[in-house]
Design brief:
Number of strands: 8
Helix content: 40-55%
Strand content: 15-25%
CATH class of the largest domain: Alpha Beta
Oligomer: single chain
Number of helices: 8
CATH topology of the largest domain: Tetrahydropterin Synthase, Chain A
Order of helices and strands: HHEEEEEEEHHHHEHH
Distance between the termini: 161 Å
CATH architecture of the largest domain: 2-Layer Sandwich
CATH superfamily of the largest domain: Band 7 domain
Shape: rod-shaped
Structural class: alpha+beta
Radius of gyration: 59 Å
Number of domains: 3
Length: 337
């Protein structure tokens, strides 16, 4: 409770006391009873009540989050040129009054969701894009009263600035700017650019009308049911195309993997065949070298000995008839010897 409210409360009690004394005096006078000092008390109470009422009407306390506009019947214009800041102030009782404006930020929301915006029901902004599509935009405007220009604001709009100015200008600027973009640009590539352009326009318009724009928030963008269905079908088709491309790529990878496996097996077989051929070649070369060594060590006598040993391994002595030919000729012998 501030001092102005306290004084007005005390003045109310004084007036009640004064009225009570008047009733008492009236009752005593009707019964022809002495009133004593009641008349003096009544006069004292009425003086106190008038004094408290006057002081209470002249003292004004402005809260820290408020600005005060003094409406006066004194002088020209009907409004003091300077606003009242927070704290105690004196105004002319019964000739002036104070209208209070908030200094804090205020938010005006326009939304399609019921009870979310300032207006009931669907309050989103309907916009026709440059490519003829209908979109619905939810947005919030965060603003404040310009403390330097609050007197001009009161003179122009009184307390209707939110409905008559903020709402109207915001919706108009959003429609005008959004209509310069295509629907694909609004929802993707140029959404930030559009939001910044709307903010810049509002900054200028609000400043010219004694308000300060704190922020503009583009909350949501939705499409008409027909366009939303078309977008959904497009997304489904794109997903199917991506899936098909993925399957093709997967098959290519599988084919490449099979080719590499087959190539690996073929290379392995070639390497194995080369290894076997080289082994056979080495074996043959070794055998040839062995044969050359054996051939170099053979003599006629050794050959005859090996021949005989092969025919009869246990025979120790052979008798050869004179002038007779062997059934099998000895190596190195000639027929007719």
């Amino acid at each position: 409770m501030n001092i102005s409210s306290l004084l007005q409360g005390l003045a109310s009690f004084a007036w009640i006391g004064f009225i009570g004394i008047l009733i008492t005096i009236t009752l005593r006078a009707s019964r022809k009873q002495p009133v004593g000092g009641l008349g003096t008390a009544a006069i004292a109470l009425v003086v106190v009540a008038l004094l408290l009422t006057t002081i209470g009407a002249g003292i004004v306390f402005i809260e820290p989050d408020e600005l005060g506009i003094v409406v006066t019947v004194l002088g020209s214009g009907g409004i003091r040129p300077d606003p009242l800041g927070s704290g105690l102030h004196w105004i002319v009782p019964f000739a002036e009054r104070v209208e209070r404006f908030p200094k804090t930020n205020q938010t005006y929301t326009m939304s399609s969701v019921a009870d979310e915006g300032e207006a009931g029901g669907d309050d989103s902004i309907q916009v026709r894009t440059k490519d003829g599509q209908q979109v619905y935009i939810d947005a919030s405007v965060i603003y404040a009263v310009d403390p330097i220009k609050v007197v001009q604001l009161y003179s122009t709009w009184r307390f209707n600035y939110e409905d008559l100015f903020v709402r109207t200008q915001a919706r108009g600027i959003i429609r005008d700017v959004a209509s310069q973009y295509g629907v694909e640009e609004i929802v993707s590539t140029k959404r930030a650019e559009m939001e910044q352009l709307i903010t810049d326009r509002m900054l200028t318009v609000f400043s010219e009308n004694n308000l300060v724009l704190r922020d503009f928030v583009l909350r949501n963008i939705r499409f008409s049911d027909e366009y939303a269905a078309a977008v959904e079908q497009k997304q489904i088709a794109e997903q199917q195309a991506q899936q098909a491309a993925f399957v093709v790529e997967q098959k290519k990878q599988e084919a490449e993997q099979a080719r590499q496996v087959a190539q690996g097996q073929a290379d392995a077989q070639v390497i194995a065949a080369k290894g076997q051929a080289e082994a056979l070649l080495i074996q043959a070369q070794a055998q040839a070298e062995a044969n050359r060594t054996i051939a170099q060590s053979l003599t006629a006598e050794l050959i005859q000995y090996q021949y005989v040993s092969t025919l009869a391994p246990n025979v120790q002595t052979i008798f050869i008839p004179s002038g007779q030919q062997f059934i099998l000729p000895l190596p190195g012998t000639a027929i007719g010897q």
